[in-house]
Design goal:
Helix content is about 40%, strand content about 15%. By secondary structure, it is of the alpha/beta class. The strands form two sheets. The protein has an eight-stranded parallel barrel, surrounded by five helices. A two-stranded antiparallel sheet has the order 8-9. The protein is globular, with a radius of gyration of 18 Å.
Length: about 325
């Protein structure tokens, strides 16, 4: 389970009066810290920490490289240490999102080679800043390749990276299924089974569930019992304890649309009730929620506050 934040370690200035009885807020935060993806241009500690504090974040996700590029630049040891120390002091779990270009199912050798280098870089940087997990999209079989050929390549090229995670402080590798567009290798919960099997169900392999992606792929979380059904299936397919992070995003499009278009919490087709259910399922115990919703600072802060209200119910 993720490291739990200490009780009362941090009181963000923008958090409204708690709806909880005394002590319950700390327990709820420990079960499901809520936060968002924070900008770090200018420095992890210099930019990321003040932004997270202003947004009321209890958990954060960051990029450690250009998300739309292949550069694998070293970090700043001073900024890394300051960021890691501040997050530890504030009881704030940290996650890294790997660049979007990574695709281990690509038919282009250069893309696969760069994907290996890029993900290795994100995993190394994740360890350096104290991240609990590194999120990577599960990719697609490009160039008209058969799915089994692409999955064999995933095993060949991604599996060795998992074996490099030998240090106790190494992050988990978190697979994020897609919205099911194109020749996606993994979109629905059932698709995680073959993906996990290809990687020998490695002990450092986990899941990042993006609610918008799951809804777009056909899991109707807006239907009565829909969220529970999704989480039940995910546990059945991957095993207990594999869900390590949730990207909490509503959807601009209807269920099964295969479109990755995020909406603010409660303003899309998923609706607020489905997000409230995330806080009660056994599979989400200890799992942080990260928002990646539109609206800039105002949208970020509003969605973090909204999720906290739903958690309070």
């Amino acid at each position: 389970m993720p490291r739990q934040p200490p009780s009362g370690a941090w009181h963000p200035g923008r958090v409204s009066r708690s709806p909880f009885p005394e002590g319950a807020e700390q327990r709820a935060r420990a079960r499901n810290p809520v936060g968002g993806h924070v900008p770090v241009a200018g420095g992890l500690a210099k930019t990321g920490i003040p932004y997270a504090r202003e947004m009321g974040d209890e958990a954060v996700q960051v990029f450690v490289a250009n998300p739309r590029g292949w550069a694998t630049l070293p970090g700043s040891p001073g900024q890394d240490e300051a960021f890691r120390a501040a997050c530890a002091e504030q009881g704030m779990p940290v996650y890294v999102h790997a660049p979007y270009l990574i695709n281990f199912g690509s038919h282009t050798g250069e893309t696969v080679d760069k994907s290996v280098a890029s993900l290795r870089h994100s995993l190394r940087r994740g360890r350096e800043i104290g991240a609990l997990g590194v999120v990577v999209h599960t990719g697609s079989a490009t160039g008209g390749r058969p799915r089994d050929v692409a999955m064999a390549q995933v095993r060949e090229r991604m599996r060795p990276l998992l074996d490099e995670l030998e240090h106790p402080d190494d992050p988990w590798l978190l697979l994020e299924p897609t919205a099911g567009q194109g020749a996606s290798l993994c979109a629905r919960a059932e698709d995680l089974g073959p993906y996990f099997d290809a990687l020998d169900r490695h002990p450092k392999l986990g899941v990042c569930l993006d609610t918008c992606h799951a809804f777009a792929a056909g899991h109707d979380m807006a239907a009565p019992g829909g969220t529970k059904a999704l989480l039940d299936e995910l546990v059945e397919v991957t095993g207990a304890g594999r869900l390590r992070l949730i990207h909490a995003n509503d959807s601009k499009d209807v269920v099964g649309a295969h479109k990755d278009r995020h909406e603010n919490i409660g303003a899309g087709h998923i609706g607020a009730e489905a997000f409230a259910e995330l806080f009660t399922h056994p599979a989400t115990d200890g799992v942080p929620l990260i928002v990646e919703t539109p609206g800039g600072k105002e949208g970020h802060a509003a969605d973090v506050a909204r999720l906290k209200q739903l958690r309070g119910r």
